[in-house]
Amino acid sequence: MGYSLENPLDYSGDDGKPLVALFAAEADHDAAISDEPTVSVRRDAVAQIRKAAEPPCSVGPSTAYLAVTYLDRFLTKRVTQVKKPWFSVFLSLTCLSLASKMLDHGFSVDEFQATQPFQFMPGTIERMQLLVLESLGWRLRSITPFAFLDCFLSSFPSTDPRQVQDLKDRASKTLFQAQTEEMLLGFKPSVIAASALYSAAFDLLPAQFTDFESVVSSSFSLDPEKIRVCREIMRKVNTNRCDLAAAKKVVSGSDTPLAAIEPGGEGDTIRGSGSDGRDDKKQILPTI
Q1: What is the pTM of this model?
Q2: Of the N and C termini of the chain, which has fewer Cβ atoms inside 10 Å?
Q3: Segments forming the whole domain that contains residue 40
Q4: Does residue 120 share a domain with residue 54?
């Protein structure tokens, strides 16, 4: 059965069951990441995934988004104490490869590694994939905010399909941009989706914003205060992104020679369910 961000459950009925299933699935939403070491790993890994959206990898936005979703779910299940710079690269590579398989999109591990100062053996990558899959409970059909967009848009007070599509496009753009912010991890996908749509409606169709907000919040029992806070976080993220885009033009990176990496020293561990504490010198991670 196929998977997409907008239809993660691959359900085509119109009897309301998809919506019930979506809200039921997001009830298991993981808590936010709070400890600084894990936040640091996330930031570095997200940067690597975003980098993969550029040539030569050029992964699509849906693949990148799903990869970050897997990353976040993994980090909420595992306590990471890996202090080596290669770990975020390794984790981003693993999540990208899993996301590309789930969406049936092409992703070249070789092209990704060609842009990195580290190389990983195929067997090592497979072992890390198994670790991530185990942490995800072997559930790859992640519920993302995109799954709620059409549902909420059905309440928009307009019969003009162009207006509805414009709102969806603007909200989707906001979701892709805002995913880098770890503070959003504390919100359920439905709240994030509503926040992105409210922001889009406020900007594009302000005359209809109040009615749209009222209908969606009441119809789907969404917390207005959580949406308000989420919208404010998104606004700050997008503002900072514009500032960073201007600065990026004057910043140039340097190529780093490829180097095979060896297992690190003490203190580089990942703990969680299924950790066996083995030290295999053929693996990139000394303890998984």
Answers
A1: 0.81
A2: N
A3: 33-141+255-271
A4: yes
